[in-house]
Structure to design on (234 residues):
């Protein structure tokens, strides 16, 4: 559902046609299509005190002159922390613990209201950073042994999977050999049956021809068969 909200940015009223709340993950990357004459706002919540910075980067991928207005504003603030006008790309890092800032929802607004007919396809990323500016949790030294155990277990699992896959491959190869052998035997049987079928057919044709010839010769008194039978009757 489209919702209409008012954001006070730079002392002016901006109408945001859509509000979307991003997830609480450390890293979020999305691609947004901003229609001409519209503003779309996304909200990045920062509530965990272990995070100190929120880093936001964007890049216009396609549309018009590859430019867009971007505003970043803290919760309940009347002035934007970041204001980019007609830019193609930029990266900003905000110190949440700095004076004037606080934890809460940070609005990231993509303003394409200056465009009349060109939609803008924008790729944007947000990162929640620790006090030292690192991304996500840093593995501590005492966690190395646990991590090595996990790698050892993972190696055992992968080795077991590999062994099972090898067995499956062997069984498949065995079945392929059996199938090839059975097919060859079937083809040999087929050729043998065809050969004897042709041979039997030829014998039957010859036998039938001889029988017809003998029967016809019996009724021919001047024929050699009739003479032979008269000679035998003497």
């Amino acid at each position: 559902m489209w919702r209409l909200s008012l954001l006070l940015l730079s002392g002016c009223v901006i109408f945001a046609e859509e509000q979307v709340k991003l997830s609480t993950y450390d890293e979020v990357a999305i691609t947004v299509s901003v229609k001409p004459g519209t503003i779309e706002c996304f909200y990045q919540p920062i509530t965990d005190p272990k995070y100190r910075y929120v880093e936001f980067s964007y890049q216009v991928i396609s549309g018009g002159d590859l430019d867009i207005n971007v505003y970043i504003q803290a919760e309940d603030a009347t002035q934007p922390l970041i204001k980019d006008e007609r830019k193609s790309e930029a990266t900003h890092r905000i110190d949440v613990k700095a004076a004037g800032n606080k934890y809460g929802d940070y609005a990231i607004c993509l303003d394409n209201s200056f465009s009349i007919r060109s939609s803008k396809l924008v790729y944007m990323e947000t990162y929640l950073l620790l006090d030292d500016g690192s991304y996500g949790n840093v593995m501590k030294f005492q966690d190395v042994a646990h991590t090595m155990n996990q790698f050892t277990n993972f190696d055992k699992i992968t080795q077991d999977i590999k062994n099972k896959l090898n067995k499956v491959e062997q069984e498949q190869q065995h079945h392929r050999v059996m199938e090839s052998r059975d097919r060859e035997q079937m083809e040999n049987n087929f050729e043998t049956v065809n050969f004897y079928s042709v041979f039997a057919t030829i014998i039957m044709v010859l036998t039938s021809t001889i029988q017809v010839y003998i029967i016809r010769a019996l009724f021919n008194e001047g024929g050699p068969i009739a003479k032979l039978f008269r000679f035998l009757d003497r």
User: Anything to note?
Assistant: The chain is about 35% helix and 35% strand.
